[in-house]
Write a structure and sequence with these properties.
Elements lengths: L2 E5 L3 E5 L13 E5 L1 H11 L3 E5 L1 E2 L3 H11 L9 E2 L6 E5 L8 E5 L15 H4 L5 E5 L7 H16 L3 E5 L9 H12 L4 E5 H8 L15 H15 L3 E9 L4 E11 L2 E4 L3 E4 L6 H14 L4 H15 L11 H8 L10
Parallel strand pairs: 1-4, 1-9, 2-7, 5-6, 9-10, 10-11, 11-12
Antiparallel strand pairs: 2-3, 7-8, 12-13, 13-14, 13-15
Length: about 350
């Protein structure tokens, strides 16, 4: 079985029920999630030998986070325990023309305060086929920048492919800080995953003729973005998601997988009615990793990744609760949503 390792911060997610606003409620529900953890859960659901690496406090809330991963088959052998707290994010679901809102409370978390030397990457990555990180983890500070680089180097020594989702978060660091850190990290990355905003925010690479707020997308511009990213860092492959936002509930969703100008493919465009947008990009990353491990063609790989992500938008919570069979069905062209009996 293929071994995949992801590294990052899992957080406690606190959210009002349904579409209530923060200021309306007296109680909220709790779940767990975070970019790389979301990828690990998806891969475990697909039957991959999925390992998640982080650091969590040794108290019961930390154990709740560990348990949330174990219930879906994610292996938690390399999760460190210690430090003062788990990161938290508050999520308010948007509707119609009102966008969703995310408020972070993660300063001083156990993973943010962890030291790079605490992670025994040689042991963690032994036998691994793939190592995945995002631009969220290095945004937590220089220690995490160094830990990500150490992990990437060890992954290559182990013969694993390294992927990184740029995932720029303006509430965590500045564009300049992101550019400096991600330039160093991307020197060690094989597969870059991005969207039009992240490529522009982090590296100043913009898709010409595109305005996502108006639903205006230009496929040639996305090919140019992928080409520029590959030329800048020597990535083997670049995957880009194309989201056209009609409003908070309705999006058009598509993807591009670029190897070179003679080997690239756009997926089918999916019309989404969104139940929960959080984790949509992570489910795309997981779908891409799975399809690449299975040796799918460029076209089949991007179709599979986008189908997996489209289905995630129908699932409440960070984690994508879809099976291989369900993704195969949509990737194969059946998006009818008809009841199964």
């Amino acid at each position: 079985m293929d071994k995949v390792v992801t590294f990052g911060e899992i957080m406690l997610r606190i959210q009002p029920a349904d579409y209530y606003r923060f200021v309306q409620v007296d109680s909220m529900t709790t779940t767990f999630g975070g970019g790389e953890a979301n990828v690990s859960v998806s891969l475990a659901n697909y039957g991959i030998d999925s390992y998640y690496v982080t650091k969590l406090p040794a108290h019961e809330i930390g154990q709740m986070a560990v348990n949330s991963l174990r219930r879906y088959g994610v292996k938690t052998d390399y999760i460190l325990r210690g430090g003062p707290r788990i990161g938290i994010y508050y999520n308010e679901k948007g509707a119609s023309q009102r966008g969703s809102k995310c408020i972070y409370d993660r300063a001083g978390s156990s993973i943010q305060l962890a030291k790079p030397e605490e992670f025994d990457w040689k042991t963690i990555l032994a036998g691994a086929k793939w190592f995945h990180i995002t631009g969220i983890t290095p945004a937590l500070g220089q220690n995490m920048v160094n830990a990500c680089i150490d992990g990437c180097k060890a992954a290559h020594e182990a013969g694993a492919t390294v992927s990184c989702d740029l995932n720029y978060r303006a509430k965590l660091w500045t564009k300049e800080q992101a550019r400096i850190a991600m330039t160093e990290i991307c020197k060690h990355v094989d597969v870059c995953i991005s969207n039009e905003d992240d490529a522009n925010d982090v590296f100043g690479i913009k898709s010409e003729g595109t305005d996502t707020t108006k639903g205006e997308l230009n496929n040639d511009g996305y090919i140019s973005v992928a080409r520029q990213l590959k030329e800048k860092f020597g990535f083997k492959k670049v995957a880009i998601t194309l989201r056209s936002s009609i409003n908070a509930n309705r999006n058009d969703w598509q993807g591009l997988l670029y190897i070179d100008d003679n080997d690239l493919a756009f997926s089918k465009k999916h019309e989404l009615w969104i139940v929960d947008r959080v984790g949509g990009g992570d489910s795309f990353a997981a779908g891409l990793i799975y399809s690449q491990l299975k040796g799918m063609s460029t076209q089949d790989s991007i179709n599979w990744a986008v189908a997996a992500s489209a289905l995630k938008h129908s699932v409440i919570g960070d984690f994508n609760m879809m099976s291989v069979e369900e993704v195969n069905k949509l990737a194969g062209g059946d998006g009818s949503g008809r009841i199964q009996r």
